[in-house]
Design brief:
Length: 267
Amino acid sequence: MYTVKIGKYLLFCLLWSLQCAASENDTTEIYPDIESTPLPLLYPQGRIVNGNSASDGQFPYQVSLRYNGYHTCGGSIISANYVVTAAHCVKSLSPSRLTIRAGSRLVNSNGQIVGISKVTTNPSFRGTGNDIALLKLSSPLKLNDKVKAIPLARKDPPSGAAVVVSGWGRLGRCSRRTPKVLQYTTFTALTKEQCRRRLFWVSPTVLCLAHPFGKGACNGDSGGPAVYKNELVGVANYVVGGCASDLPDGYASVAYHYNWLKKNSDL
């Protein structure tokens, strides 16, 4: 297993280098573990690769999580007082240095800026399992047409379901350009068994979402929402084989963590 993993890594590094050198003269991050790569924190690199620009108010539950004023991750409003995001986005960070921007499709302007008073990460968070956290806001959001809470799903979407994901960040795997406007696209839900056939192993806490090569989540999309039938079904966690590969992306299953989310928030 270890040998196969290293072989995959070396091949991926070669292909990544060739692709980025051919596309543009840019420096690119090489992922240390291509079987389960958390979407890195503190770099404005995340976006939905090859997505569409959101219209004003289209995703009223989406927030930009910010560290020292800079976008680092996504998040979803679940009440006027709470936002859900990925644990690896906030673990070991001081709440006093975190804020959210809500109610704007623009990453750096408009909307409401609110501080964070408390960070609660899932106590079972390890690696790619249970990668989910709650942020208690320092003051309630003013809910309106552009700032709304999204209901939590009690069950995962069925196999083949179209799931909408959204986020901000780089315009491609090898690009330095970042969009000002929120991006979105549609992924396809997989069952645990379907996902295991693609990835050999997947945590029971994870929802797998498939997409074609050239689309997918990327660095900085971490913590962002996956939505099916107007319910939050997933929280962006990690990519496999690099951003926009043809392998499924991993999202924390909201259904799996439903009771924990209810217990630790005001829902």
